[in-house]
Specification:
single chain; 156 residues; alpha+beta; Aminopeptidase; four-stranded antiparallel sheet; three-stranded antiparallel sheet; 6 helices; 31% strand
Amino acid sequence: MNQTDASAAPAIRVRRATPADREPLLAFYREHHAHRPRLTDPDVWDWLFAEQPRASDAIPFFVLEADGKVAGGIGYVVTRARLGDRDVDAIFPVNFFINPAYRGLPALRLLRAALKECSVAIAAYVSPDAMRLLLKSGFVDLSTRLRGYHYGLQAD
């Protein structure tokens, strides 16, 4: 790759969301996913991320940036899961959407940022693109055993 090609590649960064990201993320969802009203509703955003328990420590959301602009995001809801006879902390990733131009490694980096938050993650109702990333990340397809919930993961 020559110097011109390398300098044209966008600078990609994954980082934890801050309160200042709320409006740019809502605008991103309106631009790329307007057909999903729950993504563009500020009240739903506040309920899921700003007002959820533990959100005061850190917003449970990560942003994918390309050249300083929002190119995607993933949030998670903190929950409890029953594994055998034990209750354990878990996360449920939600709102995992990116600009289609950043599928692949940037999307995988974004997913992995959320998965580092807890040793157990549960995901359901995912797109074919997200399914591929979940399987690459170690999720197990439980769709034939559980009605409605398609994936579960026990990470190290």
